[in-house]
Amino acid sequence: xxxxxxxxxxxxxxxxxxxxxxxxxxxxxxxxxxxxxxxxxxxxxxxxxxxxxxxxxxxxxxxxxxxxxxxxxxxxxxxxxxxxxxxxxxxxxxxxxxxxxxxxxxxxxxxxxxxxxxxxxxxxxxxxxxxxxxxxxxxxxxxxxxxxxxxxxxxxxxxxxxxxxxxxxxxxxxxxxxxxxxxxxxxxxxxxxxxxxxxxxxxxxxxxxxxxxxxxxxxxxxxxxxxxxxxxxxxxxxxxxxxxxxxxxxxxxxxxxxxxxxxxxxxxxxx
Length: 271
Fold this sequence. Notes:
The structure is a single chain. The protein is mostly helical. The chain has helices spanning 2-5, 10-20, 28-53, 59-82, 89-104, 113-122, 134-146, 158-176, 181-194, 205-220, 224-238, 242-270. The protein is elongated, with a radius of gyration of 24 Å. Residues 2-9 and 263-271 have low confidence and may be disordered.
């Protein structure tokens, strides 16, 4: 995947290397040779991480993370070489993961110890100590943000993303179940209010949208075979079993009821 999205940094190098290199003229050739070797090392490590994570992290976030990382890698590598140090695999990995974790925040998602174990199992040269750990990744993330290398992703726009995904799901259901068009149209309108609820689970947006749909199935589809059909559909788009989705729906409806009761009490107190 990185071959497709990797940008050409030749122009960047041409403009930046002279200003970044902090060595004598007679040693610049050796420096540039070291730089080339380090870049190859970084790209190899990056490719391996993408392969290991591609089944566990949405593709669009991997693409964004690769792009941001490669915009920074020249600066990070040269800084290390200026200090007569090398960019280790642990450092490559935690810097990339710091960027990826920051991007995932837009959907209320984040990396976990699980992702670190995946990389340890699939990549050679990663330590079991603090130099490759969740805490080190968060430390690097803070440093990158403070230095202005990346922008802190705020958890904004989630409702808009959820509403968009919810509409896409309903429209797709309308296209494959045209016999239920009217019921799905009514369900779609009702769901517009629900996506703004504070009770919406802040999880991956497709799974969250499926919870909204699942919470409305029994209200609009009374026949058992129709309900089974729609639950099977939700299983397909979330890769989760019906029972797991139903548990999320149950919690959502319970929290929604509590939220509505609190709203009614607040309204009553103002009268």
